[in-house]
Amino acid sequence: MGHSEKMKSVTSNASADALVRFEDVKKSYDGANFVVTGLNLSVRRGEFLTMLGPSGSGKTTTLMMLGGFERPTLGRILLDGKPVERLPPEKRNIGFVFQNYALFPHMTVAENVAFPLRYRGIKGAAAAVKVRQALDRVSLGNLGGRRPAQLSGGQQQRVALARALVFEPSLVLMDEPLGALDKQLREHMQVEIKRLQVSLGITMVYVTHDQSEALTMSDRIAVFHDGHIQQLAEPEMLYKRPSNRFVASFIGENNTLACSLLAREGEVAVVRMPDGTVLKGLGHGLTGGTHDVSLSVRPESLTLASGEPRESGNRIVGEAHEVFFLGDHMRLSIKAFGSQVLIARIPTREARHFAPGERVALDCGVADCQLLEA
Ligand code: ADP
Ligand code: MG
Asked: If I label 212, which of 50, 70, 174, 272 is the partner at 20 to 30 A Cα–Cα?
């Protein structure tokens, strides 16, 4: 099966099995400026989908519209095939963990977790059983009697998680739930939330501005910028085949080099660097003839050259600029192609010393070079 055929079958499955669909959704708060500008997105049943983007890109607004706390200005949102724009939040059967997780300080942990059940008319022994199960699920079984102020940040976060799961929703939304935690706890909770999502079989729509969090947890990532999706793909695809410069620079580190397109040979494009060096890369998204483009290559894709250039690869020659030793790797910046600076990440076992100004030759594969519109 060819690559494009495979993509097509996945896409058609997705729309048949979509739990959530955004159709041309737009949102303006002031009636003049749109902060979500034409959103089309299907969320598959059982998947972990992350909305990743910088602050102000419209992630929270999108989540609030799905949760029922904001109304779209234009367009439709379908849940299980039915339009929900007019349904209030409690009629949507969606669990929600807000950006600041908003626990009620005057209630105990158990009362906090029971709150969504009261809303849904579940009381007494039936409620107690569900609260108990939800607290056990997040390893807080014995802390039901405490108040939020008597818990650590990580424990409070777990209470918010239990409260979102207690009524067994099929869809859970989380808005930067780990933002307040320190790095170690955040990484621990990423794994814990991902395990819960898989074991409970719930569909998750998760918001973060942290790309490594998105890469760790997600089945698919929608990269947001300026109120719309720049690219929607699996983490590995997003990393290896960014479709534009914004995605290339937002996910991981990338060298972005100015060059001009000379020719296309199938999916391979040939470019000329400012100093005349000719390189090749993948040019899936490029259109038109000769014009200015940019070449994007990751620091870890550059290796120290040995021997003659490989016929099928690219050779980049420059001079060492700065060298930093970082334990497992060396970070080497070189000046090449006239005035451009690029970074190479060389594993320590392959590295050697470079004096500033020394000639450096680097190799990289054609498939590791992405040509994108400038
Ligand atoms: P993100 O979650 O990606 O940081 P938001 O959805 O919170 O983005 O915000 C998108 C844009 O909408 C921002 O410019 C923000 O200032 C604006 N915005 C968000 N909420 C409101 C609101 N309640 N009223 C007016 N403007 C808002
Ligand atoms: Mg936000």
From this structure: 70
Q: Are residues 281 and 223 in the same domain?
A: no
User: Measured from the CA of 62, which atom of ligand 1 is nearest?
Assistant: 6
CA 216–ligand 1 middle distance (angstroms): 26
Dihedral sign, Cα of residue 372, residue 336, residue 359, residue 276: positive
**102-160, pLDDT tens digit by residue?**
899 999 999 999 999 988 889 999 999 999 999 998 999 899 999 999 999 889 999 99
> Distance from the CA of 201 to the center of ligand 2, in angstroms?
26
Contact yes or no for 10/161 (Cβ under 8 A): no
CATH number, domain containing residue 358: 2.40.50.140
Q: Atom 21 of ligand 1 has which residue's CA nearest to it?
A: 29
Model confidence pTM above 0.85? yes
* Residue 97 located in a structural domain: yes
Q: Tell me the pLDDT tens digit for each residue of 354-372.
A: 999 999 999 999 999 999 9
Residues 210 and 313 in one domain: no
Give yes or no for residue 211 CB within 6 A of ligand 1. Answer: no
In sequence order, the 6+-apart residues with CB closer than 8 A to the CB of 65 are: 25, 27, 36, 71, 72, 77
272 and 162 housed in the same domain? no
Residue 157 sits in the same domain as residue 282 = no
Residue nearest to atom 12 of ligand 1 (CA): 35
Identify whether the C-beta of residue 96 lies closer than 8 Å to the C-beta of residue 169: no
**Which residues form the domain of 218?**
18-244
